[in-house]
Amino acid sequence: MRSILEILLLAAVGLGWGYLLFRRTDPPVRIKERLALWLAVMLSQGVLTYVLDHLADPAVTNPEDLTYMPGCWLGGVLWLYLAARSFLVVKLSIAADALKARNPAAVLACSGALLGAGLIYGGANIGSGDDGRTTLIVALLGYAVWFLCWWILEARLGLAASIRQHRRCFAGGRLALMLAVNGGVIGWAIAGDWISFAATLRDVLVEGWPALAVTVAFGLVESILQGAGR
Fold first, then answer.
1. Of 187, 183, 175, nearest in space to 225 by CA
2. In tens digits, what is the pLDDT along the chain, a chain of 230 residues?
3. Which residues contact 226 (CB under 8 A, 6 or more apart)?
4. Residue 71 DSSP code
């Protein structure tokens, strides 16, 4: 029963995002650009499905009890939607830049950002917790750290200009890689049983330090490549 429900949920999300991404637009957008965004969403939900089946709180992983799994799963759908809205803060829009402007650099950046955000939510669901609120607290803390790294880079380097105005695909690809890697690192750092907010914050600082290293390295490389027009 659980497997059937998960298949139906994945199909519903695939169709829903497919409608949003593949519907006709003016001007038309190439299929491969829409497909990259769709795959990022489906991969994020696939990771979440695995976590809820094998790594989450026993009350969620229990195959005989479907009380909690659907809510956690649908929370991931809402999470990605709200994350996509938050990208506007760093001057990146899936609708305007990736689709309407037919900008392949924005497609790459948005795809990496969606995947990174999804990995953070997946990591927050690993381990046992008091209730859904603790999962949300952990996810929001991880996302805040991840997004802060992105925002600082945008403020210092103006990444959006390279992607939106100059349409540099290599710049979009580099940002996508950085966001996906940082999402995985931070998702791993926040994974585990809930103890307290202070313990979670300590885990982020102690185990999530590679995200800071990746961000600094990316900033240094990006500043050099921007000077070279790449």
1. 175
2. 788 888 898 999 888 888 878 776 655 656 777 888 999 999 999 999 999 999 999 889 888 888 888 899 999 999 999 999 999 999 999 988 988 888 999 999 999 999 999 999 999 999 988 778 899 999 999 999 999 999 999 999 989 988 988 889 999 999 999 999 999 999 999 999 998 889 989 988 889 999 999 999 999 999 888 766 66
3. 157, 162, 171
4. H
Torsional class of 130: left (φ above 0), alpha (ψ -120 to 50), beta (otherwise) = alpha
Closest CA to 44 of 5, 7, 90, 10: 10
pTM, rounded to two decimals: 0.92
| Paired strand residues for 127 | 56
Whole domain around residue 223: which residue ranges?
2-227
Q: 55: closest CA among 3, 125, 136?
A: 125
Smallest Cα–Cα separation from 189: which of 151, 142, 147, 149?
A: 142
Q: Distance between CA 225 and CA 216 in Å, rounded?
A: 14
- Is there a contact between 170 and 230 (Cβ–Cβ < 8 Å)? yes
Type of residue numbered 171: A
- Number of domain units in the chain: 1
Please name the residue that has the structure tokens 């990259």.
36
Backbone angles phi, psi at 83, to 5 degrees: -60, -45
Q: What is the DSSP letter of 208?
A: S
The CA angle 187-189-193, to the nearest 5 degrees, is 95
